[in-house]
Write a structure and sequence with these properties.
heterodimer, A: about 110 residues, Udp-n-acetylmuramoylalanyl-d-glutamate--2,6- Diaminopimelate Ligase, Chain: A, domain 1, about 35% helix, globular, B: about 140 residues, alpha+beta, five-stranded antiparallel beta sheet, about 30% strand
Amino acid sequence: MVLKEIVSMTDGKVICGESHLNDSIEYAFASDLMSDVLTLRITNFLLITGLANIQSVRTAEMSDLKYILFARDKKITEEMIELAEENDMMIISTPYSVFKTSGILYGAGLKPVY
Amino acid sequence: MELEYKVEGGDFTQAGYASSQVKKVLKQLGINPIVIKRVVVALYEAEVNIVAHAYRGVITAFLNEDGIRLVLDDEGPGIPDIDQAMVKGYSTASKEVREMGFGAGMGLPNIKDNADEFDIVSEVGKGTRLNIFIKYI
């Protein structure tokens, strides 16, 4: 699934990393538990989370993942954007909940990691 | 090559800085990305543990011929029962740590899963030393 479709389906806003809009991904993982994200061996996936803090972006950096979608219009700080940009990541923000976001994207064919 | 970083307990804004620096060096050296991910995931979990549980600590990464050795030495309360600390789901983390997305009792088991060698030595009231070794592939 192309990232710009994900943005459109979730009524999302691109916070940074617009250059990734035409990238394509197959998998997504939804979690607020960063230790769980760190157990994943795959790298090319979308992280859907309601946990908006610097450690969410750090976790993405350590996991080699490029795409984070923050649910429920959570506040994304300058510090988070700076770290994401430094690591060439794309951050998307959606007003939808993690549940609704996951349901829409799963229904549209994005695959679960497990 | 040897890299050394100081870590302050309780400073969540900086947690992960050392792991990030190690990752940059390993990338520059052209280390296999699978090895880099195993190293930085193990190191990041261990770094977060220092921030979450200790007063301060020192991380040393040794880039040896056969692999990468990570030694994390902290001054802190120590771990009274290491076997229990290794059980998935067991955690003594504070609410603040959990709010950062950690403290679910997954860190130490995850370090073990990523390491080729892993041991913990701890003295209650003094501190803890983690010794992690990950081979190149």
